[in-house]
# Entry
Amino acid sequence: MKKNRASIISVIVVALILVACKELGLVSTSRLLIVQYIGIYSIMVMGINIINGYMGTFSLAHAGFMAVGAYAASLTSRYLLTSAVLFPITILIGGLAAAIVGLIVAIPSFKSKGDYLAIITLGFTLMLQSILNNARVVGASQGMTNIDKFTNIYWVFVFLLLAVVIVRFFIGSKYGRSIKAIREDQVATQMSSVNVRQAKTVAFAVSAFLIGISGGLLCHLLGYTSPSSYGYTNVVDGLVMVYLGGVGSITGSVTGALIWQLLVQLLKSLGTWRWVVGGLILCLVMIFLPNGVFGYKELPDVIVSLKKKLSKKGEK
# Structure
Protein backbone atom coordinates (compact mmCIF):
# COMPACT_ATOMS: atom_id res chain seq x y z
CA MET A 1 0.00 0.00 0.00
CA LYS A 2 2.88 2.41 0.76
CA LYS A 3 4.28 1.87 -2.74
CA ASN A 4 0.84 2.47 -4.25
CA ARG A 5 0.48 5.76 -2.40
CA ALA A 6 4.04 6.83 -3.22
CA SER A 7 3.59 6.20 -6.97
CA ILE A 8 0.25 8.00 -7.13
CA ILE A 9 1.38 10.94 -4.98
CA SER A 10 4.55 11.35 -7.09
CA VAL A 11 2.51 11.66 -10.31
CA ILE A 12 0.07 14.12 -8.70
CA VAL A 13 2.88 16.31 -7.31
CA VAL A 14 4.72 16.44 -10.67
CA ALA A 15 1.44 17.18 -12.46
CA LEU A 16 0.58 20.04 -10.10
CA ILE A 17 4.06 21.58 -10.47
CA LEU A 18 3.94 21.42 -14.28
CA VAL A 19 0.37 22.72 -14.47
CA ALA A 20 1.31 25.62 -12.16
CA CYS A 21 4.34 26.40 -14.38
CA LYS A 22 2.11 26.31 -17.47
CA GLU A 23 -0.48 28.63 -15.97
CA LEU A 24 2.23 31.06 -14.82
CA GLY A 25 3.87 30.98 -18.25
CA LEU A 26 7.14 29.53 -16.92
CA VAL A 27 7.21 26.66 -19.44
CA SER A 28 7.41 27.23 -23.20
CA THR A 29 5.02 25.51 -25.61
CA SER A 30 7.81 23.37 -27.10
CA ARG A 31 8.95 22.13 -23.68
CA LEU A 32 5.37 21.46 -22.67
CA LEU A 33 4.99 19.35 -25.82
CA ILE A 34 8.04 17.28 -24.78
CA VAL A 35 6.51 16.75 -21.34
CA GLN A 36 3.33 15.47 -23.01
CA TYR A 37 5.39 13.07 -25.14
CA ILE A 38 7.07 11.77 -21.98
CA GLY A 39 3.71 11.25 -20.27
CA ILE A 40 2.16 9.47 -23.27
CA TYR A 41 5.14 7.19 -23.82
CA SER A 42 5.28 6.45 -20.08
CA ILE A 43 1.78 4.98 -20.40
CA MET A 44 2.88 2.91 -23.40
CA VAL A 45 6.01 1.64 -21.60
CA MET A 46 3.96 0.65 -18.54
CA GLY A 47 1.79 -1.44 -20.85
CA ILE A 48 4.82 -3.09 -22.46
CA ASN A 49 6.36 -3.70 -19.04
CA ILE A 50 3.42 -5.85 -17.93
CA ILE A 51 4.36 -8.44 -20.58
CA ASN A 52 8.09 -7.93 -21.11
CA GLY A 53 8.94 -7.01 -17.53
CA TYR A 54 6.57 -8.39 -14.90
CA MET A 55 5.76 -11.53 -16.88
CA GLY A 56 9.21 -11.90 -18.44
CA THR A 57 7.87 -12.73 -21.92
CA PHE A 58 9.30 -11.09 -25.04
CA SER A 59 6.48 -9.54 -27.07
CA LEU A 60 6.70 -7.19 -30.06
CA ALA A 61 2.99 -6.43 -30.41
CA HIS A 62 3.03 -2.97 -28.79
CA ALA A 63 3.25 -1.01 -32.07
CA GLY A 64 0.18 -2.86 -33.34
CA PHE A 65 -1.81 -2.19 -30.15
CA MET A 66 -0.83 1.48 -30.30
CA ALA A 67 -2.09 1.63 -33.89
CA VAL A 68 -5.42 0.03 -32.93
CA GLY A 69 -5.89 2.52 -30.08
CA ALA A 70 -4.96 5.48 -32.28
CA TYR A 71 -7.22 4.58 -35.20
CA ALA A 72 -10.15 3.52 -32.98
CA ALA A 73 -9.97 6.77 -31.01
CA SER A 74 -9.56 8.86 -34.18
CA LEU A 75 -12.60 7.28 -35.85
CA THR A 76 -14.64 7.71 -32.66
CA SER A 77 -13.79 11.40 -32.26
CA ARG A 78 -14.47 12.08 -35.95
CA TYR A 79 -17.78 10.25 -36.42
CA LEU A 80 -19.30 9.50 -33.00
CA LEU A 81 -18.07 11.57 -30.05
CA THR A 82 -17.08 14.84 -31.71
CA SER A 83 -17.23 16.99 -28.56
CA ALA A 84 -14.11 17.77 -26.52
CA VAL A 85 -16.14 17.07 -23.38
CA LEU A 86 -16.44 13.41 -24.42
CA PHE A 87 -12.72 13.10 -25.21
CA PRO A 88 -11.88 10.81 -22.23
CA ILE A 89 -14.55 8.35 -23.40
CA THR A 90 -12.97 8.44 -26.87
CA ILE A 91 -9.58 7.50 -25.40
CA LEU A 92 -11.09 4.70 -23.32
CA ILE A 93 -12.78 3.33 -26.45
CA GLY A 94 -9.36 3.27 -28.12
CA GLY A 95 -7.96 1.39 -25.13
CA LEU A 96 -10.85 -1.11 -25.13
CA ALA A 97 -10.45 -1.74 -28.87
CA ALA A 98 -6.77 -2.49 -28.31
CA ALA A 99 -7.63 -4.76 -25.35
CA ILE A 100 -10.06 -6.79 -27.52
CA VAL A 101 -7.40 -7.16 -30.21
CA GLY A 102 -4.95 -8.10 -27.46
CA LEU A 103 -7.22 -10.93 -26.36
CA ILE A 104 -7.53 -12.16 -29.94
CA VAL A 105 -3.75 -12.11 -30.40
CA ALA A 106 -3.08 -13.69 -26.99
CA ILE A 107 -5.17 -16.82 -27.50
CA PRO A 108 -3.05 -18.33 -30.32
CA SER A 109 0.20 -16.62 -29.26
CA PHE A 110 0.53 -18.29 -25.87
CA LYS A 111 0.25 -21.75 -27.41
CA SER A 112 3.82 -21.10 -28.57
CA LYS A 113 6.92 -20.85 -26.40
CA GLY A 114 10.19 -18.94 -26.29
CA ASP A 115 11.23 -16.91 -29.31
CA TYR A 116 8.18 -17.99 -31.32
CA LEU A 117 6.00 -15.57 -29.34
CA ALA A 118 8.21 -12.66 -30.44
CA ILE A 119 7.93 -13.80 -34.07
CA ILE A 120 4.12 -14.16 -33.87
CA THR A 121 3.62 -10.75 -32.21
CA LEU A 122 5.97 -9.05 -34.69
CA GLY A 123 4.04 -10.73 -37.51
CA PHE A 124 0.81 -9.33 -36.06
CA THR A 125 2.28 -5.80 -35.97
CA LEU A 126 3.53 -5.94 -39.56
CA MET A 127 0.29 -7.53 -40.79
CA LEU A 128 -1.78 -4.79 -39.14
CA GLN A 129 0.48 -2.11 -40.64
CA SER A 130 -0.01 -3.66 -44.09
CA ILE A 131 -3.81 -3.72 -43.63
CA LEU A 132 -3.83 -0.04 -42.62
CA ASN A 133 -1.63 0.83 -45.60
CA ASN A 134 -4.30 -0.55 -47.92
CA ALA A 135 -7.49 0.42 -46.07
CA ARG A 136 -8.96 3.44 -47.86
CA VAL A 137 -11.57 3.98 -45.15
CA VAL A 138 -8.77 5.21 -42.83
CA GLY A 139 -6.73 7.01 -45.50
CA ALA A 140 -4.55 4.05 -46.53
CA SER A 141 -0.82 4.90 -46.53
CA GLN A 142 -1.53 8.63 -46.08
CA GLY A 143 -3.30 7.93 -42.79
CA MET A 144 -5.88 10.09 -41.07
CA THR A 145 -5.38 13.86 -40.95
CA ASN A 146 -7.25 16.80 -39.41
CA ILE A 147 -7.83 14.88 -36.18
CA ASP A 148 -9.06 17.19 -33.42
CA LYS A 149 -6.18 18.10 -31.10
CA PHE A 150 -8.02 17.38 -27.85
CA THR A 151 -4.97 16.06 -25.99
CA ASN A 152 -3.44 18.54 -23.53
CA ILE A 153 -1.20 18.42 -20.47
CA TYR A 154 -4.19 17.90 -18.17
CA TRP A 155 -5.53 14.83 -19.97
CA VAL A 156 -2.03 13.37 -20.30
CA PHE A 157 -1.56 13.44 -16.54
CA VAL A 158 -5.08 12.18 -15.84
CA PHE A 159 -4.46 9.11 -17.99
CA LEU A 160 -0.91 8.71 -16.67
CA LEU A 161 -2.33 8.61 -13.15
CA LEU A 162 -4.97 6.12 -14.31
CA ALA A 163 -2.22 3.94 -15.83
CA VAL A 164 -0.21 3.99 -12.60
CA VAL A 165 -3.29 2.99 -10.59
CA ILE A 166 -4.19 0.18 -13.03
CA VAL A 167 -0.67 -1.28 -13.07
CA ARG A 168 -0.28 -1.01 -9.30
CA PHE A 169 -3.56 -2.77 -8.53
CA PHE A 170 -3.13 -5.32 -11.33
CA ILE A 171 0.32 -6.34 -10.11
CA GLY A 172 -1.05 -6.62 -6.58
CA SER A 173 -3.95 -8.83 -7.74
CA LYS A 174 -3.90 -12.62 -8.09
CA TYR A 175 -3.20 -12.26 -11.81
CA GLY A 176 -0.27 -9.97 -11.12
CA ARG A 177 1.21 -12.38 -8.58
CA SER A 178 0.67 -15.20 -11.07
CA ILE A 179 2.55 -13.52 -13.92
CA LYS A 180 5.47 -12.68 -11.61
CA ALA A 181 5.57 -16.33 -10.59
CA ILE A 182 5.49 -17.30 -14.29
CA ARG A 183 8.52 -15.06 -14.86
CA GLU A 184 10.48 -16.93 -12.20
CA ASP A 185 9.42 -20.49 -13.08
CA GLN A 186 6.45 -21.31 -15.32
CA VAL A 187 6.57 -25.07 -14.66
CA ALA A 188 6.50 -24.59 -10.89
CA THR A 189 3.67 -22.07 -11.27
CA GLN A 190 1.59 -24.59 -13.26
CA MET A 191 2.21 -27.23 -10.58
CA SER A 192 0.86 -24.77 -8.00
CA SER A 193 -2.59 -24.98 -9.67
CA VAL A 194 -2.27 -21.58 -11.33
CA ASN A 195 -4.13 -21.19 -14.63
CA VAL A 196 -1.09 -19.96 -16.55
CA ARG A 197 -2.86 -19.39 -19.87
CA GLN A 198 -5.65 -17.37 -18.24
CA ALA A 199 -3.18 -15.21 -16.31
CA LYS A 200 -1.17 -14.54 -19.47
CA THR A 201 -4.27 -13.68 -21.49
CA VAL A 202 -5.54 -11.20 -18.87
CA ALA A 203 -2.07 -9.62 -18.66
CA PHE A 204 -2.00 -9.25 -22.46
CA ALA A 205 -5.41 -7.53 -22.43
CA VAL A 206 -4.42 -5.07 -19.67
CA SER A 207 -1.13 -4.36 -21.47
CA ALA A 208 -2.91 -3.72 -24.79
CA PHE A 209 -5.47 -1.46 -23.05
CA LEU A 210 -2.75 0.85 -21.70
CA ILE A 211 -0.83 0.89 -24.99
CA GLY A 212 -4.08 1.66 -26.85
CA ILE A 213 -4.70 4.64 -24.55
CA SER A 214 -1.24 6.00 -25.36
CA GLY A 215 -1.99 5.67 -29.09
CA GLY A 216 -5.26 7.56 -28.75
CA LEU A 217 -3.61 10.37 -26.80
CA LEU A 218 -0.71 10.67 -29.26
CA CYS A 219 -2.83 10.98 -32.41
CA HIS A 220 -5.03 13.62 -30.74
CA LEU A 221 -1.90 15.52 -29.75
CA LEU A 222 -0.32 15.50 -33.22
CA GLY A 223 -3.58 15.84 -35.20
CA TYR A 224 -2.81 12.93 -37.51
CA THR A 225 -1.91 9.25 -37.56
CA SER A 226 -0.48 7.02 -40.29
CA PRO A 227 0.61 3.37 -40.67
CA SER A 228 4.28 4.40 -40.98
CA SER A 229 4.18 5.51 -37.32
CA TYR A 230 3.69 1.92 -36.15
CA GLY A 231 6.48 -0.02 -37.82
CA TYR A 232 9.97 -1.13 -36.79
CA THR A 233 10.92 2.27 -35.36
CA ASN A 234 8.02 2.25 -32.91
CA VAL A 235 8.78 -1.37 -31.94
CA VAL A 236 12.43 -0.54 -31.22
CA ASP A 237 11.62 2.71 -29.38
CA GLY A 238 9.24 0.86 -27.06
CA LEU A 239 11.78 -1.83 -26.24
CA VAL A 240 14.55 0.73 -25.69
CA MET A 241 12.45 2.69 -23.18
CA VAL A 242 11.45 -0.48 -21.30
CA TYR A 243 14.94 -1.90 -20.92
CA LEU A 244 16.54 1.51 -20.38
CA GLY A 245 14.39 2.50 -17.40
CA GLY A 246 13.99 -0.90 -15.79
CA VAL A 247 11.91 -4.01 -16.37
CA GLY A 248 9.14 -4.75 -13.88
CA SER A 249 9.01 -1.21 -12.46
CA ILE A 250 6.58 1.70 -12.82
CA THR A 251 9.34 4.12 -11.86
CA GLY A 252 11.55 2.47 -14.47
CA SER A 253 8.84 2.86 -17.13
CA VAL A 254 8.56 6.61 -16.54
CA THR A 255 12.35 6.98 -16.26
CA GLY A 256 12.94 5.11 -19.52
CA ALA A 257 10.42 7.27 -21.38
CA LEU A 258 11.91 10.41 -19.80
CA ILE A 259 15.53 9.59 -20.68
CA TRP A 260 14.83 8.41 -24.22
CA GLN A 261 12.54 11.31 -25.17
CA LEU A 262 15.03 13.83 -23.79
CA LEU A 263 17.85 12.11 -25.70
CA VAL A 264 15.85 12.23 -28.94
CA GLN A 265 15.27 15.96 -28.45
CA LEU A 266 18.83 16.78 -27.37
CA LEU A 267 20.41 14.87 -30.26
CA LYS A 268 18.13 16.28 -32.97
CA SER A 269 20.87 18.60 -34.21
CA LEU A 270 23.00 15.56 -35.08
CA GLY A 271 20.53 14.39 -37.72
CA THR A 272 20.71 10.66 -38.41
CA TRP A 273 23.83 10.43 -36.20
CA ARG A 274 21.59 10.84 -33.17
CA TRP A 275 20.57 7.20 -33.51
CA VAL A 276 24.25 6.20 -33.39
CA VAL A 277 24.89 8.22 -30.24
CA GLY A 278 21.59 7.11 -28.69
CA GLY A 279 22.38 3.48 -29.51
CA LEU A 280 25.85 3.81 -27.97
CA ILE A 281 24.38 5.23 -24.75
CA LEU A 282 21.87 2.38 -24.65
CA CYS A 283 24.65 -0.21 -25.12
CA LEU A 284 26.61 1.29 -22.23
CA VAL A 285 23.54 1.21 -19.99
CA MET A 286 22.86 -2.42 -20.92
CA ILE A 287 26.48 -3.38 -20.17
CA PHE A 288 26.74 -1.66 -16.80
CA LEU A 289 23.02 -1.74 -15.81
CA PRO A 290 21.59 -4.89 -17.49
CA ASN A 291 18.23 -4.50 -15.70
CA GLY A 292 17.96 -0.81 -16.56
CA VAL A 293 18.35 2.24 -14.34
CA PHE A 294 15.85 1.06 -11.72
CA GLY A 295 15.74 -2.68 -12.49
CA TYR A 296 12.88 -4.27 -10.57
CA LYS A 297 12.86 -1.52 -7.94
CA GLU A 298 10.47 1.35 -7.39
CA LEU A 299 11.42 4.84 -6.18
CA PRO A 300 10.50 4.11 -2.50
CA ASP A 301 12.79 1.04 -2.57
CA VAL A 302 15.70 3.12 -3.87
CA ILE A 303 15.12 5.81 -1.23
CA VAL A 304 15.05 3.20 1.56
CA SER A 305 18.27 1.55 0.31
CA LEU A 306 20.02 4.93 0.08
CA LYS A 307 18.97 5.76 3.65
CA LYS A 308 20.40 2.45 4.84
CA LYS A 309 23.71 3.07 3.05
CA LEU A 310 23.93 6.61 4.45
CA SER A 311 23.14 5.41 7.98
CA LYS A 312 25.86 2.73 7.74
CA LYS A 313 28.40 5.32 6.57
CA GLY A 314 27.36 7.58 9.47
CA GLU A 315 27.90 4.77 11.96
CA LYS A 316 31.43 4.21 10.61
Notes: The mean pLDDT is 83. The longest helix spans residues 196-222.
